[in-house]
Specification:
By secondary structure, the chain is an alpha+beta fold. It is built from 3 helices and 14 strands. The strands form 5 sheets. The chain has a 4-stranded antiparallel sheet with strand order 3-2-1-5, covered by helices on one side. The protein has a 4-stranded antiparallel sheet with strand order 4-12-13-14, covered by helices on one side. Strands 6-11 form a two-stranded antiparallel sheet.
Length: 207
Amino acid sequence: MKGFTLPEILIALGIAVILLSVSLSVGTDFYQTQQLDNFSQRITGALRRAELMAMSSQGDSDHGVYFEQNRYILFKGNSFSSRDAQYDEIFDLPFVLSLSGLAEAVFQKPDGLPKESPAFCSGICQTCGQFTQRNPCRNQQGCSWNQPSRICSGTCLSCGAFSQESDCSNQQGCAWSLGQSGGTVVLTGGNKQINIDINQAGRVNVR
């Protein structure tokens, strides 16, 4: 019986690797899309729940939802910083998703209207390792330039850590948002994103 030659084996392995790569890419894309749809509905549900809790004056308190990059928290109180933490409901995101945009949405009792939020710095701060030149590296909070190795290293502070417009605007990937009633929560997965809008009347819409 004639066996396979080395070129034939290499060609077969190459085809197998290509098919596996395509399958993984398609699978990851499908998973991200599925998780985007799933968690946009969950986040919308949490916002509407907070609104209903405020309208019913549950616990004689305002209620809201606080957003971090990898999780969101349903809380009781007129702000996340002054909340009653024992009532926190914490929801983690899968690793393929991240949140940006509005930092928190608070609904006031008893009308359920969104409370005006303070100005805030939001977005996804680029990691120090993404900067390959000294000056851009040094402009980032938490990053430092190693001259002999020509490496930018450190832990970049998240956009939400900056409380002044000038500090926020100097950071790559961050944007300063003025105080407003309502706003937009951005849910991102890969190169896709879903915007969850909260208007001044408290209506929540997904787009």
